[in-house]
Amino acid sequence: MNDLLTYIKKISSNVSIFFKWFFIAVISGTLVGLVGTAFYTCLERSTEYRTAHSFVIFFLPVAGLAIVGIYHLAKDDGQGTNQILRSVQSGETVSFKMAPLIFITTVITHFFGGSAGREGAAVQIGGSIGNYFGGLLKMEEFDRKIMTMCCVSAAFSAVFGTPIAAAIFAIEVVSVGIMYYAALVPCAVASLTAHYVAVAYGCKSESFHVFYSENFDIATGLKTVLIAMLASVVSIIFCIALNKSEQMFKKLKNPYIRIFTGGIIIVLLTLLVRSNDYNGAGIAVIKKAFDGEVNPEAFLLKIIFTAITLGCGFKGGEIVPSFYIGATFGAFFGSILQISPLLGAAVGMISVFCAVTNCPIASLIISLELFGMTGVNYYLLAIAVSYMLSGYYGLYNSQKIIYSKYKNEYVNKTAHH
To answer: How far is residue 194 from each of residues 7, 20, 124, 134, 370, measured CA to CA in Å?
Structure first.
């Protein structure tokens, strides 16, 4: 009888915890979904205006001064996504100021033609809101970490429209090799809630329809492996470029001079290449890559533009640029190997994403949400290869890689770039 009562108490406790997090996840998913929707809309409008009025690129250096001024007035050092990761790892407090600051400055960066993404910024917005509400509700440290991951999922889902991958990404990216399964229900519910809120207000989910034979072809499989191997090298180059650019610009001690100089370089490069394809996030170029329309040098130029933009102090994410780099590289190299540009772009895109984030499970899921089931065998193969061969490089130097990529061994390394 005592055993039965103990069992009932445990079940009741678990049910209570479930409903607590379900309720919190729905509320936070709705709130963050609305913020994510506003962010998505502002970025879309900014991109539309910049595309129609290319002259705004000439104001990028001045916009950079405004960004530095905004952070200076807010007395914030703009640590970004790395601080969100540390908040989950060690309970570091994140200032609520991060959310409005990264929202405003990312929109400014996109409006005037800086090369940056949006998902990294969404992670910061969601993480900042989640950490703040966790403190406001006086949650204990472990629950506050879950709250942070919950809102990260919601923001990523609202902005990019891949709710399943968003839920997994938040619990996989922090410590590679360890999944925070306690956050699975909150992240899943918040991600789905935010997604449907965003869709209800007109946000469009990204998708690239890849139609390919469901029968696995060995020759194509080997070509997929080769693309993934080379994509892992490209991903390492991207990570190193981001780091070296930041180090180079830090030699200019004054942040105003630093970002103004970077803005001028981006303007000059844009004039030099005679194209606006490398400004902003570049979703339109990614879509062209899936149609086989790609310049051979596109992936290298995007690496350069993005490294300079983020290295000198402009704000935004690195994930969409990684999609751009992977898709254009995969489409170009796939054409050399004589495989479908659809498959080449998809394999390159998901390989680079996996390599720079060190998130193979989220990468597989996002490939299914973006590309569909046809070709899934090739995506799995590419993800496995790129994850292993990218070593311990990554976009976020606060990311922990707990277990070795090469053997069953505990390493607890910090991702480096």
So the answer is: 35, 18, 16, 18, 18
Same domain, 286 and 156: no
pTM of the model: 0.94
Q: What would the mean pLDDT of 14-41 be, rounded to a whole number?
A: 95
Same domain, yes or no, for 107 and 158? yes
Q: Is 8 helix (H, G, I), strand (E, B) or coil?
A: helix
Q: Which residue has the tokens 């940056």?
A: 116
pLDDT in tens, 49-72: 999 999 999 999 999 999 999 999
Alpha helices in 173-217 (DSSP H): 184-200
Is 368 found in the same domain as 275?
A: yes
Are residue 247 and residue 285 in the same domain, yes or no? yes
What is the count of structural domains for the chain?
2
CA angle 67, 319, 416 (to 5 degrees): 90
- CATH number of the domain that residue 337 is part of: 1.10.3080.10
Residue 56 CB-density burial (10 A; 0-12 exposed, 13-18 middle, 19+ buried): middle
Tokens of 123: 């992670």
Q: Which pLDDT band, with edges at 50, 70 and 90, does 102 fall under?
A: very high
- 378 versus 404: which is more confidently predicted? 378
Taking only the tens place, the pLDDT of each residue in 7-27 is 666 777 788 899 999 999 999
In 3D, which of 93, 21, 74, 382 has the Cα closest to residue 227? 382
Kindly tell me the burial class for residue 416, based on how many C-beta atoms sit within 10 Å of its own C-beta (0-12, 13-18, 19 or more).
middle
> Residue 393 is part of which domain span?
218-414
Is the domain of 232 the same as that of 144?
no
Residues 256, 312: Cα–Cα separation, whole Å: 9
Same domain as 224, residue 273:
yes
